[in-house]
Design goal:
With about 40 residues, the protein is mainly α. The protein is built from one helix and no strands. The protein has one helix spanning about 1-40. It is rod-shaped, with a radius of gyration of 18 Å.
């Protein structure tokens, strides 16, 4: 039973990490684009 719970917990953590990586990379690219646009104008 406890191993099942541990597996679920690990999956949840991995998924959360994956989600935060996606959002972080999106924000990073947006910030980079903002800096590029400011330099042009």
């Amino acid at each position: 039973m406890s191993s099942k719970r541990a597996m679920k917990q690990a999956q949840k953590q991995a998924y959360a990490k994956h989600r935060s990586n996606i959002t972080n990379s999106r924000l990073a690219t947006k910030k980079k684009n903002l800096f590029k646009n400011k330099k042009k104008s």
